[in-house]
């Protein structure tokens, strides 16, 4: 007796055959995203974006419940700002998209080329500590102005040589929280609190078990004193970083000049934190819950909860089946 | 008898003295936004961003109700894509931020400078017809794939020489709808429908009377066949464009190769539209409803509905006043 042929699956290859390729096929079959012709940049299709919107909605509510408000800061960072924190610029220098011109003109051969060179090049934000720090330096004068608890939903760019849909892309979407506090203890508490928020979100809303801990020196965020992280082990038993929360000490407030008069009337640098989650979570979700027949989503994050499939093998019952499906739809929507 | 001195107002100058300066002062006093050190880019502060979020929420619901879904396309457009539609590239050439490098390195003098020049420069999207068209060309094969009804919430960049907070900024936030249809009539209907959606939104949610009509040849969107527009007359009796909806004919589908097999089995180019509203609306709102004492917001869009101001002139009643305010707060929140 020979073994039965393996059952045919909707996704090929199966997970055990080639996990990375299985993942790409799941993302394409579910129409979550696709590569674009801009190297490393992806197109997030409506189904994928719908998942991200649901994540945003839930995370945003959790940020508000912990006292944060949203704001929006410039996409471009002057090179001189970016270079203020030495470790920071070193950490990101190799992956920065740089804007050098502000116009296009037709050259002698009739081809378009960049014109009007900028005096100072602009870095497309890979993260916003330095540009947000410049605003905070203006807003913070006294301990009475603290804490500042702000979050931003934005796109960021980190040039990626080996892109993978959602997991590693040159442009990605994320939220970045940036806070300033009066004391070290308060800033450390915020760093921990936001990791806890992330953990609750990933565990309770994405139904993904997580490991939380601290990044090693070599993996710490460039410029941070401490980086806390959530790591997820997906089905190929590899870890994916699901979110990070950084205690930045006074490094960035020194670099940006975020100073305040403390309760003793002395000038002091603020204590800052930053924390972020990205569209990488959409890929993590697919790697965690998907199976050989494709995408599986936890109900709290699925853009569609129910699909009604009319099965109409006989022409004479077709109309009645469709009618019953329509009635069921109305009933489920609570409209009947 | 001399005239009485004019009453002191919270905003100086008053509207009749200097309307443009009054506007800037209202935006600053209400902490809606402020200029950044990146020329033409603004920082949208939490109060300003809260207004934009409320606009987004309401508009987004209206887009969904008319069958649209959200997606996200790359920030960067390869120069060759952008140049495909001749009028389009000509219209935007003078205001394009161009990415030419993907790395920073330290030069001989110890200063950071751009490195790793791109073979093909990338334009930071001033609008996304061409980059979205590249995806649609892949998605559309048959009339059965139509219509495509997609909206994107995003940041765009148009280099601005004379910036004004919200009204004219180099980077701004917006939504851009991009649709493909089987017939000219359907695309024209969509163009009109979205102008109607905008009109309803501006009139009923922003409480702003509008004039709708068609842009002249010189003001038409670069590459469009027809541009419909909503114009608002603010308190200085000048018009501000509040939203536009473009019928693009087959111009962009020809440029991007969006072709489908029609019901007769022949290849045909799709009929496309695009339509957008921006953060300029926040400024328009301030110019429309504000008075000499500052910002006035229509209730549907105000981030805060009620402010309780405890007045405690006497120390002995202070505790009781605060207690009554707390009780009122709980009552208003429906928690008592």
Helices, strands, pairings?
Two copies of one chain form a homodimer.
Chain A: H1 19-29, E1 33-35, E2 42-44, H2 46-65, E3 69-70, E4 76-78, H3 79-82, H4 86-92, E5 98-106, E6 112-124, H5 129-139, E7 148-157, E8 171-181, H6 184-205, E9 211-214, E10 226-233, E11 239-247, H7 251-256, E12 259-261, E13 267-269, E14 271-278, H8 280-289, H9 315-332
Parallel strand pairs in A: 3-7
Antiparallel strand pairs in A: 1-2, 4-6, 5-6, 7-8, 8-14, 9-10, 10-11, 11-14, 12-13
Label this structure with key terms.
seven-stranded mixed beta sheet; homodimer; 9 helices; 336 residues; three-stranded antiparallel beta sheet; alpha+beta; 14 strands; BirA Bifunctional Protein, domain 2
What does this structure look like?
The structure is a homodimer of 336-residue chains. By secondary structure, the first copy, chain A, is α+β, with helices and mostly antiparallel strands. Chain A has two domains: 19-289, 2-Layer Sandwich (BirA Bifunctional Protein, domain 2); 306-336. Chain A contains nine helices and 14 strands. Chain A has a seven-stranded mixed β-sheet. Chain A is globular and about 85 Å long. Chain A starts with 18 loop residues before the first helix and ends with a helix. The model of chain A has no long low-confidence stretch (mean pLDDT 95). At the A-B interface, strand 2, helix 2, strand 3, strand 4 and helix 3 of A face strand 2, helix 2, strand 3, strand 4 and helix 3 of B. Strand 5 of chain A pairs antiparallel with strand 5 (98-106) of chain B, so a sheet runs across the interface.
